[in-house]
Amino acid sequence: MTRALLFDVFGTVVDWRNGVAREAAPILAALGRGDIDPHAFADAWRAGYQPAMEEVRSGRRPFTRLDVLHRENLETLLARHGIVDVPEPVMITLNTAWHRLDPWPDVVAGLTRLRTRFILAPLSNGNIALMLNMAKRAGLPWDAILGSEVSQAFKPTPQAYLRTAEVLGLSPGECMLVAAHNKDLAAARACGFGTAFVARPTEKGPGQTIDLRAEQEWDQVATDFGALATALGC
Predict the structure, then answer these.
(1) Which of 81, 85, 183, 184 could cross-link to 179 by cystine, CB 3.0-4.6 Å?
(2) Which domains does the chain have, with CATH numbers?
(3) Structure pTM?
(4) For residue range 190-207, what is the model confidence (pLDDT) as tens digits?
């Protein structure tokens, strides 16, 4: 029986692309580079996400918080655009754009309904401070604030899923991952988790070509968190 719903966050719970673009636009303009498309900037920053985590997953680098990886990728991206010697307070503000992302419109109401029957927590590659600040700003009603420090691993490494269940005192079979990404769900299922797919067809912008639909027979497939709550009897 499912007791906990654990959520992928970037893309599933929050709209990272528009949020990062919103935060980046005025800073880029203030740095004299208002010519840079803020959405393209967000996409390029995000493109460094998986390669940076792969250094950890492969064992080539010790576990490193996502805030640090984001900062390193940001410095590389700014240098690529010829932007150097940025004041440290500005760098901190820009790097923590990921802490200030907006939830999709259905999220808060959907989570509130789901919380009446299930334990809710993030199962994200983001670190605890990032998840905490995001939740406080966006009003996300988590029962526990978990981050990648809990597992010392990044998805889709099995430890990321199994250690999260363990710290909640649950078996994998008592946990269900809710995600907009088929690969994430496949990794969770391989660890014994239940699975729920919620499509976010605009996560990567108007040209998105992946994760537009469920690619396997997941335990639940829903159009949004409200529909998932209905399907789960909340």
Answers:
(1) 184
(2) 4-15+101-231 (3.40.50.1000), 16-99 (1.10.150.240)
(3) 0.97
(4) 999 999 999 999 999 998
